Amino acid sequence: MMKYLQRLGKSLMLPVACLPVAAILMGIGYWIDPTGWGANNVAAAFLIKAGGALIDNMAILFAIGVGVGMSDDNDGTAGLAGLVSWLMITTLLSSGVVAMLKGVDVSEVPAAFGKIETQFIGILSGLIGAACYNKFKNTKLPPALSFFSGKRCVAIVTAGASLVATLILFFVWPVVYGALVAFGEAIISTGSIGAGIYAFFNRLLIPFGLHHALNSVFWFDVAGIDDIGKFWGTKPGGIFGQTGMYMTGFFPVMMFGLPAAALAMYHTAKDNKKKIVAGLLLASGFSAFFTGVTEPLEFAFMFLAPGLYLVHAILTGISVAVCAALPVRAGFNFSAGFVDWFLSFKAPFAENPIWLIGIGVIVACIYYIVFRFAITKFNLKTPGREDDDDTAGEMNVKLSNNNFTEVASIILKGLGGKENIVTVDNCVTRLRLEIKDYTLVNEKIIKSAGAAGIIRPSKTSVQVIIGTQVQFVADELKKLCKSEIVK
User: Which residues are part of the catalytic machinery?
Assistant: First the structure.
């Protein structure tokens, strides 16, 4: 299970890499026009819409990225299948279609169906697409249907699997969503402790996209709290010293805690991978600080190291609970980043927002220490620490023949032929293969191609050290394995 989650985390790296810059563009646009969100300024509108094109469609990026990343050979067909699944599920479970299916007015449709386009559905769609691709990409059909053989049948099978998933979600989604709303309403009376409990589950539910259900209870008017509206004076009934308690504690985490966590992940990354992960962690950390958009950083490690993400949720809960108990209040319209913190100074119910700098520094220290300790103590697979076991020496491997087709052919022979190959993948310097029969592997033949070494993590796994040219060898090896597949 852990290996599957880490593979899922790795597959999210590509779509996650698209998000930080988009978040920063939105943050700058919102800073220029915090009240109109572009309605009062053309430049703000341009930036907000440009960033929103990706941030608002994050789930679609996940559907495609997970589809490609979780497929056996990273084929684009799996990404297309993921998109097919996403379109079917979100269309069939949209409020309008559900109203049609039930024969009722749209206003009578459960609120859950208005929140169906979530990251969870995107990831689920990608997994469905990848699973269908891996299972049916080599399907051979009778001559009359031969056009749909191989990869062309994947989308068709995906559509059928998505219909089944839709039927299950039709009954399950509103129950889960409604249960979370009821849970949120139940903890309202517990004061600052309840605020911390809410924040803990807010972070914990982000991978499933169900944090919106809890947010609707505390930030909006589902249960009469309406923390955002009252804090900014757009809704009556705010109470000084109370209004804003469900937002304040997020600022230290997003502005200071998560950037510090990114620094800890960078410092604990393998030396030969620090340059690779530096860009992602720097951009994601700055995005969290400046705009309060944390998904680029959170999705970078939540599946690679789920235990660490649980620690993050706990620390967030503690931060929100402590801030709710202190005489400090700040709020946001967009998210708990620098932009909203700065703008909230003049809000009607702001109270000592400058204190959040000192609190944030403390939170940053705690995050850095806890993350660094946990990562090193438990060898957590955060970005740059995945199970590739690359060493500096592997970067300088010299192949005996730069004809990559010939090198791949020799390696394939040493692996027992394509009939013995289940999957072909690669990291920075190694071929990573799943095989059927380990007794067919001939290390002498493999090394004759110039490979520096062979590692066998298990009876069904083989790693061949190739060096920095591994991508070219992997591509040729995949072609040789597919040479007899019907297209």
Answer: 427
Q: Is a pLDDT exceeding 50 seen at residue 392?
A: no
Q: Which residue has the tokens 């200071």?
A: 256
Q: pLDDT value at position 209?
A: 81
Do 379 and 396 lie in a common domain? Answer: no
Q: Are residues 380 and 405 in the same domain?
A: no
User: In this structure, what token pair is assigned to residue 49?
Assistant: 């819409």
Give the model's pLDDT for residue 184.
92
Tens digit of pLDDT for each residue in 154-204? 999 999 999 999 999 999 999 999 999 999 999 988 999 999 999 999 999
Mean pLDDT, residues 366-374: 98
Single pTM value for the model: 0.76
Side chain identity at residue 463, one-letter code: Q
- Both 228 and 192 in one domain: the answer is yes
Q: Is the dihedral angle over the CA atoms 36, 39, 44, 47 positive or is it negative?
A: positive
Is residue 416 pLDDT above 80, yes or no? yes
Domain's final residue, options 339, 367, 387: 387
372 vs 301: CA distance, rounded Å: 13
DSSP-derived 3-state class of residue 236: coil
State the burial class of residue 39 (Cβ atoms within 10 Å of its Cβ: 0-12, 13-18, 19+).
exposed
Residue 14 lies in a domain: no
How many domains is the chain partitioned into structurally? 2
Residues 367, 434: one domain? no
Q: pLDDT tens digits, residue range 103-125? A: 999 999 998 999 899 888 999 99
Contact of 463 with 433, CB cutoff 8 Å = yes
Same domain, 222 and 292: yes
Is residue 337 located within the same domain as residue 466?
no
* 400 lies in the same domain as 450: yes
Pairing relationship of beta strands 461-465 and 453-458 according to DSSP bridges: antiparallel
CA distance 9 to 458: 22
464 CB-side CA count, 13 A: 33
Res. 400 pLDDT band, cuts 50 70 90: low
Rounded percentage of the chain residues whose pLDDT exceeds 90:
54
**Residues 311 and 421 grouped into a single domain:** no
- Last residue of one domain, picked from the residues 331, 352, 387: 387
Domain ranges, residue 241: 187-387
- DSSP character for 124? H
Which of 228, 232, 210, 208 lies closest to 219 in space, CA to CA?
228
